[in-house]
Structures are given as C-alpha cells and as structure tokens.
TrEMBL record:
Major subcellular site: cytoplasm
Keyword field: Cytoplasm, DNA damage, DNA repair, Methyltransferase, Transferase
Catalytic-site annotation from UniProt: C130
Protein name as annotated: Methylated-DNA--protein-cysteine methyltransferase
A GO term for molecular function: methylated-DNA-[protein]-cysteine S-methyltransferase activity
E.C. designation(s): 2.1.1.63
Pfam families per record: DNA_binding_1, Methyltransf_1N
Amino acid sequence: MTYAYKLMDSPVGQLKLVANGERLAAILWQNDKPNRVRLGELIEANDRPVLIDTERQLNEYFAGTRREFDLPLAFQGTEFQKQVWAALLTIPFGQTRSYAEIAVQIGNVNAVRAAGAANGRNPISIVAPCHRVIGASGDLTGFAGGLANKMFLLSLEAGQTSLEAQADRQTDMFAEEGKAKVEAQARPEAQTKPARHAPRRGTQSSLFGT
C-alpha cells in the first residue's frame, strides 16, 4: 500500500502528514523513531485534499482558534490499539486522563501497561491527543514528540493567549526545574548521602512514550 505525505512547519517542529487514500493515517514528529508507526511506501503529494485540510486545521489549533478537529481518520493497528486511540479522541480539549483511566474506559482495568504501550504507538499525534494522557501522579511521562512539545501542547490548551506567551511559560518552567535541581544538590544531606536512583511515581508510565 502506498501512502501520500505532506510536510508542514509548526511550533513543535516539522510534521509529516500522511494520508491513506482520502483519510488521514498519521501525523509524525520531526524526530519520530522510524519503527514507532509502521507505514508502507510513502510518496510526496502536496495537493492531496485531506492533507491540505489537516494542515489548515493544525494551523488553526496552534493559533488558538480551533479546539476540535474534523478530519476523516484511518487508524492502522490491532483492535486493542484502536480501542485506546478511540478513547483518546474522547478526551476534551484542555483536559487530561491517566493511563489507568484509559484502561477503565475501554473496559479492561488490568490493561494499564498495555494501554500505555498503545498510547505510545498512536499514529495520529495531536489530532488523537495522546499528549493529554499523563501519569497517575500528574507527571507528564514520555512522549514521542519530546516532553517539551508535550508541555507546549498542554499549556497551549490551558489558555495561553499567544504562542509567544506559551514559549515564555515553557522556558520559565524549565528554568525553575533546573534551579530546583541545583538547590537540591547544594543541600548538606545531598553531599553526604550516596545518590539513590529510585524512580518517581509515574516513571513506569514514562517507558511507554506517546
């Protein structure tokens, strides 16, 4: 099967929009792992209507004028994966869900890890908002597009009035995190006690990526 693609520049890097016929099959990140989303042969097709419409709607989303996407989708995966991806589409703009909540929603409370793994294989990033899934403790956890982009998207949906304001907020959050690490290292107990590498709550989920 041959897929058509179109590249677009965005505030989260260059995105590859992929169509299967007249349906959107994937939105891939600039530094996406080659085997995260398995597709067939790709040919560039900048005039494919569904790809043009996808780029338009994404630009509206980044500009803060679109909260929902209206695109025909073609998910390729197992039935379980499709259940998880369908659950992603139900998460409202500006809200988040945990992996456990996704597992409950699809009717399999014991499938938390499997739900996280499927979330990490989500082929249609942003439109199927895997960035809205976080750890049970509130940790952002892993993300195929990178944690900085995940923070960007969540903050944008949290009510930023402009992309510039969002970029400033993102920079401030990283600066605060770096300051906290420096202060922690400067404490006397940090210098006398051997470092321990116990994972934080939510680290297990970070192995999944999104």
